[in-house]
Design goal:
- With 215 residues, this protein is α+β, with helices and mostly antiparallel strands.
- It has two domains: 3-146, Enolase-like, domain 1 (2-Layer Sandwich); 155-214, no CATH class.
- Helix content is 44%, strand content 26%.
- It has a three-stranded antiparallel beta sheet. Strands 1-2 form a two-stranded antiparallel ribbon.
- The longest helix is centred in the C-terminal third of the chain and has 22 residues, at 193-214.
- It is elongated, with a radius of gyration of 24 Å.
Amino acid sequence: MSIEMTIRELHLEISNLITPPEYVENDRPDGSGNDYPKPYYMRAVQLKYFPTSSWTITEKPIFNMNKLVSWVTTGRLDWDYTYIGHPEIKRSGMMAAAHQVQYLTDYNTGKKLDTLSDLGNDIKSSNTDTWKKALNFYQNICDDIYRWESPDLTVSQVTQMTELALQIPDKKRQEQILNTLKGGTFLLNKKNFNKHMDKLRKEIESSRTTIKSKE
């Protein structure tokens, strides 16, 4: 199996993991809100598959008319593929998120005061949100919670299409399809796999008919 396919299969494996219910929290007490994975579960998955990952951040406060309104965290995630025996393959990705700064409320009037509620917690939340988004987006951790589904073909689907492509008499056309499979493309994914397979079968049948007519 090529390195590209090994990496793709690794990300599919992670994407297909089911987050245990005890590591999922909801942003509403009655459970009717959005689900979020707990950070330490995401970290545990990351340590298993990407143990050498590092996270570097820069932070920026956002003001509106001299009043602090939000805290923006920009993070850089770096990782390699030591888990599958290729530490020399290194990747990095950027992610940013903003967290609204909370102010105390006057419970008698219901109006917001000019006193910050807990800036430290707001800064921590901004970093955590950014980090969690990066792990999900780049490393496919907790795809089941964030409702992401990898569009990549499975190894079995790539194998099926490769075997079919090799039946095409036109070598240039063969090479074109094989290069597409090797490099990966959003034009070819799980949803349109069957459609492209049918198209290839018709193309092969048409080529064979043309060859026979020339004989």
